[in-house]
Specification:
Shape: globular
Number of helices: 19
Largest sheet: 7 strands, mixed
InterPro entries: Aminotrans_3 (IPR005814), Aminotrans_3_PPA_site (IPR049704), PyrdxlP-dep_Trfase (IPR015424), PyrdxlP-dep_Trfase_major (IPR015421), PyrdxlP-dep_Trfase_small (IPR015422)
Number of domains: 2
Family: Belongs to the class-III pyridoxal-phosphate-dependent aminotransferase family.
Keywords: Aminotransferase, Pyridoxal phosphate, Transferase
CATH architecture of the largest domain: 3-Layer(aba) Sandwich
Cofactor: pyridoxal 5'-phosphate
Strand order of the largest sheet: 4-10-9-8-7-5-6
Number of strands: 16
Protein name: Aspartate aminotransferase family protein
Length: 448
């Protein structure tokens, strides 16, 4: 065990004790793959604003922000009050309710593509439903996705060039995977096949921007899908309401056929939605024709669709988003954070760079980057940075060192909210400086 690991175990002893209990209950002691962390994950007890507190009482600047769901920070007063009010009225009414109407009207008001809306239980369910609708609408069986873009964990979304264990062969074969940021490869597929129903893309870049994209490429995808009569699905589970109040579609000025939503949509509570063209979404509609409904209607159920607690939190959040301020504030502060962290790396002559879009960021140690004309850093190649970092253990070592300095990164980066102010940004820059000292003592600091 390295000294860094030993210090981590001592400082987060309460989390270690809980993990020893969890390991007897859950595979690897986890309830979500992204929380895998050696030698054990931290266990949080409460959160407020830009911070969360672990079971040992340590206050941590939080860059997970509910996996990107909390644009307004933890425990925003308007969101908390809305949930508390609805909690007293009922958690599950087993009926249509007024909040679902107000919630959908806000989505329709903010999202340019949202002629119709259907709520789901999660972002994964949203992409699953969008793919099903695309197949039903076009009568074609296949979906095109880009390598390194994440669309949830169902079989069709998880298919890749090397299908993971447990993915049905039929699911893998129904999904065509093409390289990211390669319009020529996409054009080749669409020109050579007549069985493609839709192309799905994370418009802000794969894996919440870890595999960056460009505005020109997203426009090329829209042009190619229109040319070949193929539906375009924007997976805006991450980018929705974050890149702009109207999501990536507003940011790029592109109207997709379908859009998948989650995270910020529900104000930190569970849920998701598919929105988009009326003629596609109306495949979910009943026509009072039993024969037609049995043969042509797309079925969609879900016990917690439009759950009133999620609706309450979502309404309170989207009412704030509609002002335009939260998105702009979080993006501005992310720009400042990225600049400050790059200044730390430059001053210390560390090999690596920090990059991001909108209000998220990634710290990419040990790899070459490139600067655009505006001076912003980007990876040299369109591959997940984790491929470069994982063999050296730098992702986990950096996160471990940052936790010891009071900052919790989401893997090698994170999301900002309106609650992250100058104080938290400067503290994060200082934490990175101190964390690099720890890595240097371990002999793990990559130099230029």
């Amino acid at each position: 065990m390295s000294e860094l690991e030993a210090q981590y175990e001592r400082r987060f002893a309460g989390s270690a004790r809980l993990y020893r209990r969890a390991i007897r209950l859950f595979p690897s002691g986890l309830t979500h793959d992204a929380r895998y962390f050696a030698p054990f994950p931290i266990y949080a007890e409460r959160a407020s604003g830009a911070y969360k507190w672990d079971v040992d009482g340590h206050r941590l600047i939080d860059y997970w922000m509910g996996h990107g769901a909390l644009l307004l920070g933890h425990g925003h007063p308007a969101v908390a009050q809305a949930v508390q009010t609805q909690l007293a009225r009922g958690t599950h009414l087993g009926a249509s309710h007024p909040l679902e109407v107000t919630w959908a009207e806000l989505v329709q008001r903010l999202m340019p593509a949202a002629q119709r809306v259907r709520f789901t239980n999660s972002g994964t369910e949203a992409t699953h439903l969008a793919m099903r609708l695309a197949r039903a609408f076009t009568g074609r069986p296949r979906i095109v996705k880009f390598e390194g873009h994440f669309h949830g964990w169902h079989d069709y979304a998880a298919a890749s060039a090397e299908p993971p264990p447990g993915i049905a062969r039929e699911g893998a074969e129904a999904t065509i995977v093409v390289p990211p940021n390669d319009p020529v490869a996409l054009a080749r597929v669409l020109e050579s096949r007549q069985d493609v129903a839709a192309v799905i893309i994370e418009p802000g870049g794969g894996i919440w921007g870890e595999v960056p994209t460009t505005e020109a490429f997203v426009h090329a995808v829209r042009d190619l899908t229109l040319r070949h009569g193929v539906l375009l699905i924007f997976d805006e589970v991450v980018t929705g309401f974050r890149m702009a109040p109207g999501g990536a579609q507003e940011y790029y000025g592109i109207r997709p056929d379908l859009v998948c939503l989650g995270k910020i949509l529900c104000g930190g509570l569970p849920g998701g939605a598919v929105a988009g063209r009326a003629d596609v979404l109306d495949l979910l509609a009943f026509r009072d024709d039993p024969a037609r409904d049995a043969r042509e209607k797309v079925a969609h159920l879900g016990t917690f669709n439009a759950n009133p607690l999620s609706a309450a939190a979502g309404i309170a959040t989207l009412q704030e988003v509609a002002t335009g301020r939260p998105t702009a504030i979080a993006a501005e502060r992310a720009d400042t954070l990225v600049r400050r962290l790059n200044e730390v790396l430059e001053r210390r002559r560390v090999k690596g760079f920090v990059y991001g879009l909108s209000s998220w960021f990634h710290i990419h140690l040990g790899a070459e980057g490139r600067q655009d004309p505006q001076g912003r850093w980007w990876p040299v190649r369109p591959a997940p940075p984790g491929e470069d970092l994982a063999p050296h253990g730098l992702v986990q070592s950096l996160r471990r060192a940052m936790l010891l300095e009071g900052v919790d990164l989401m893997r090698n980066g994170g999301f900002l909210s309106t609650a992250h102010a100058d104080q938290e940004i400067e503290a994060t820059a200082q934490a990175l400086d101190a964390a690099l000292d720890r890595l240097e003592r371990e002999g793990r600091l990559p130099r230029r």
